[in-house]
Design brief:
mainly alpha
Length: 353
């Protein structure tokens, strides 16, 4: 009887150490203006513990599910009927671009999987363009190495963010200061009701439906239904709740790092950088195709097909006077489609293996 309290206290101290390291790293990344600062900071906090401590620590199942559910609701909040209406006449071209993006991503993933230390599933989910946080949340459940997926996915986001202002300025020469990205007013009560209903009903759906990835997809689909119904008005996810979801996912992945896995990931980075560059070029060509088939201007089409960095893309679209609604609609539909397709892709890859 006397052994349990010290064990619980020891576990509590370890979790406090992880939380402290994650908070410090996240705060530093926020000050530096890095993308997905909380997710990366939490990953670093979990990784620091995993590499330094001889006692293993693993995210409880409820924490993993809650993190996936919150990420799913964040994605659902982006899907608004008026936004999607912007694509009413262009859906065949948008569908063609989404299929093209998937083909480019899977081709790059297959090349990455030529390395003996990268599985086909890991290569596919590491390179798939769209919804980095959602893909990271699902990767382990779908048979991929979430450590590799996380590093490569956010390396892609970083490369997109570095390339986008250069391409925008030197290829399209747009004027700046044309508009401002506005997220609208925040209403805490309906926003919290939206999160609670989406997570609660979505996780209940997970218990009723036997399928992979339902911890993320269930809340996401329920959230889309609530948002589309207009029952709660224009809803979003409070920033604190959103960052809590990213923190849970980041810590979960970080705790799984080892020195061997870190060294292995470092060795594949040169190939990953080259393949990400190919994906960026491929998506840029798909943007030209979208422009040619729909008549939308080339800058708007480029930003709509950029493989990552959604909020930076929207800010760039607003500043350059591009069609922000069109960019958001294409980006969000691609994220939604990629996440819905992910379980089917995982099943297909497992059969192929």
């Amino acid at each position: 009887m006397t052994a349990h309290p010290p064990r619980r206290r020891g576990s509590r101290r370890r979790w406090l150490a992880v939380a402290g390291a994650a908070a410090v790293a996240s705060g530093a990344f926020v000050l530096l203006g890095l993308p997905s600062a909380v997710l990366f900071g939490s990953l670093l906090g979990g990784m620091a513990y995993a590499l330094a401590s001889p006692e293993p620590l693993e995210m409880p199942e409820w924490g993993s599910r809650l993190g996936q559910a919150l990420v799913g609701v964040v994605i659902a909040a982006l899907i608004q009927v008026p936004t999607l209406a912007a694509l009413a006449d262009d859906w065949p071209a948008v569908l063609l671009v989404m299929v093209g993006t998937l083909v480019v991503s899977l081709g790059a993933g297959r090349l990455l999987a030529l390395r003996s230390d990268v599985s086909v599933a890991t290569g596919a989910f590491a390179m798939i363009a769209g919804g980095a946080s959602g893909v990271v949340a699902l990767a382990r459940e779908l048979g991929a190495d979430d450590r590799v997926v996380t590093v490569v996915q956010y390396l892609r986001v970083l490369m997109v963010l570095l390339a986008m202002p250069v391409i925008t300025a030197f290829v399209f020469h747009p004027p700046s200061g044309q508009g401002e990205l506005s997220t609208g007013p925040t209403h805490w009560l309906p926003d919290l009701a939206f999160v609670v209903l989406s997570v609660g009903l979505g996780l209940l759906l997970m218990r009723l439906v036997t399928a992979p990835a339902t911890a993320l997809l269930g809340p996401m689909l329920v959230g889309v239904a609530i948002s589309a119904s207009g029952l709660l008005g224009h809803v979003g996810v409070p920033t604190v709740v959103e960052q809590a979801g990213y923190a849970l996912i980041g810590v979960r992945v970080g705790l799984r790092f080892t020195r061997a896995s870190l060294a292995s990931i470092a060795r594949l980075l040169p190939l990953a950088v080259a393949l990400i560059a190919l994906v960026i070029v491929g998506c840029g060509l798909l943007g030209l195709l979208l422009s040619a088939t729909t008549g939308v201007d080339r800058l708007t089409a480029y930003l709509a097909t950029t493989p990552g960095g959604l909020f930076a893309v929207l800010a760039t679209a607003a500043d350059s006077g591009s069609d922000v609604t069109y960019v958001l609609a294409v980006q969000v539909i691609r994220v939604f489609a990629m996440l819905l397709f992910a379980p089917l892709l995982a099943r297909w890859l497992s059969r192929g293996r």
